[in-house]
Design brief:
By secondary structure, the protein is an alpha/beta fold. The protein has helices at about 80-95, 150-160, 245-255; strands at about 35-40, 40-45, 50, 70-75, 100-105, 110-115, 120-125, 135-140, 175-180, 225-230. A hairpin with a 2-residue loop joins strand 1 and strand 2 (about 40-45). The chain starts with about 35 loop residues before the first strand and ends in a 15-residue tail after the last helix. Pfam families: Astacin.
């Protein structure tokens, strides 16, 4: 296991409420309703920052858009309190136990993540970009109180590591039904699938339990489902934000070419 370069106390010591799964009917997009803009760019698919300096969305296909040397350097904006930092570090530690990616506080890395607390939103850019000539900061918004659960934070971190939303896979219509009639006006683009030209699945099957999947009432205008699973009508975990799924970890370890000490889900290959 990869050891995270941080000082930690054991997982889930602070209040049991922070260790329990979210209500899966919760609208995970509520904090994004007031604006589609943040300081660094515009929001797409609800929580993905399309940086003003980045024109290509083809991030996860290019090795140059993975974090160099499998190191994820980060720091916090000044408006984070100790509890918020603990929540982030707990989420990162959970990932570090399962992957070869190293998460460490920034020293002198020219491009690095800054965890920010802004407007009660959860948001991140997808993948790495060399921003050393533009200040170096890659923002991840994990604002309180809207984005404090472990899985919510991991969702945004996986975006930064190179993951798009699971429901936007090109093959998603084989697994879920989109109820367009229930989607909030102006939010329809959040449900458009990507093309095979700008997506890779790393040989892994569709994952309804992924922390990257929308919940069944995401962007609903009337509290009716916007997404329902086709082959798992009793599935209760779609949209969960408790923690990364087994397949999330397998994809991460494949994406960053971790060696075979790390789980890669060979038994689950599509």
């Amino acid at each position: 296991m990869n050891s995270i370069v941080l000082h930690f106390v054991p997982l889930c010591i602070i209040g049991f409420a922070r260790c329990l799964p979210l209500d899966l009917d919760m609208d995970m997009t509520a904090g994004l309703r007031t604006s589609n803009h943040v300081d660094e760019g515009i929001l797409v698919e609800g929580d993905i920052i399309s940086l003003k300096s980045i024109h290509s969305k083809n991030l996860v296909r290019k090795p140059s858009q993975l974090w160099p040397n499998k190191v994820f350097p980060y720091t916090f904006s000044k408006d984070f309190d100790d509890l918020q930092k603990f929540n982030v570090e707990t989420a990162l530690r959970d990932l570090a136990f399962q992957t070869c990616v190293t998460f460490r506080e920034r020293t002198n890395e020219p491009t690095y993540v800054v965890f920010k607390n802004y407007a009660k939103i959860c948001a991140s850019a997808v993948g790495y970009a060399d921003l050393k000539n533009l200040g170096g900061e890659m923002p991840i918004y994990v604002s309180a109180p809207g984005c404090v659960m472990r899985g919510q934070i991991q969702h945004e971190v996986l975006h930064s590591l190179g993951f798009w939303h699971e429901h936007a896979r090109p093959d998603r219509n084989e697994y879920v039904t989109v109820h367009w009639e229930n989607i909030r006006p102006g939010s329809e683009s959040n449900f458009e699938p990507r093309t095979w030209e700008d997506t890779v699945t790393l040989g892994m099957p569709y994952d309804l339990n992924s922390v990257m999947h929308y919940g069944k009432k995401a962007f609903s205008k009337n509290e009716s489902p916007t997404l329902t699973p086709k082959n798992s009508p009793l599935n209760e975990n779609m949209g969960q934000r408790f923690r990364v799924s087994k397949l999330d970890i397998a994809k991460l370890n494949r994406l960053y070419e971790c060696d075979n000490r790390y789980y890669k889900g060979y038994e689950l290959e599509a």
